[in-house]
Specification:
By secondary structure, the protein is α/β, with parallel strands linked by helices. It is built from 8 helices and 7 strands, in the order E-E-E-H-H-E-H-E-E-H-E-H-H-H-H.
């Protein structure tokens, strides 16, 4: 199976008011594993005429805002919000994903909180649903690292990384790094799916 690990950086947590300022997409092929550093990667910082956000989110993304402030006009990895999905679509087509009869590229997407958070921002983008869209079923690594007896909520990214025994459990809050972390969190389950880990052996048949 091929899926796209997608991560966003935003200026706040309100999709109707705040803005996507970075998007990364990484293609994973579960049948043909490659080193994480060799995976096809799309990354864009997103330019806006003005930035609206919360103090916390803007401070967290200070490095990215500096990049946007000092970028050259034609810098390849920076685009406007109107250009973001057309460029992502062309990249996905270049990776072998196919457009349907309505010219939409539909992909399986993975990400931490992608269904409850990132997807709400993606839906605000010009072209979402007509140029690019996600399959209804989304992959979130939190479900794979949930402690069903002790947790009262789905684990955060840092908790997932700690439970996966990453050398560093901190979250980069950089779109490419976070998208790669999601893939690394999911990889242990390719060879041994969850249902094979948790289901007991069926009882032996008796005559």
């Amino acid at each position: 199976m091929r899926y796209v690990s997608l991560d966003l950086e935003m200026t706040g947590n309100q999709p109707e008011r705040h803005q996507i300022i970075e998007l990364a997409a990484v293609v994973e092929d579960t049948k043909r594993l490659r080193p994480l550093t060799d995976l096809p990667t799309f990354r864009r910082a997103v330019r806006h005429a003005e930035y609206v956000g919360t103090a916390g989110a803007l401070a967290l993304n200070a490095r990215l805002l500096q990049e946007l402030a000092h970028a050259e006009p034609e810098q390849a990895d920076i685009c406007s919000v109107e250009e973001l999905l057309p460029q992502l679509r062309e990249w996905l087509l270049g990776q072998g994903f196919k457009a349907d009869k309505k010219d939409r590229v539909t992909v399986i997407m993975a990400g931490k909180n992608i269904g409850s958070f990132d997807l709400l921002f993606l839906r605000q983008l010009p072209g979402w649903g007509t140029l690019v869209r996600a399959e209804p079923a989304l992959l979130d690594p939190a479900a794979f690292y949930l402690n069903w007896r002790k947790d009262s909520r789905l684990p955060t990214m840092s908790i997932c990384k700690a439970r996966a025994r990453f050398a560093d459990a901190t979250v980069a809050h950089e779109a490419v790094a976070d998208a790669l972390d999601v893939i690394e969190l999911l990889r242990p389950f390719y060879a041994l799916p969850v249902y094979q880990q948790v289901l007991p052996e069926p009882p032996a048949e008796t005559e």
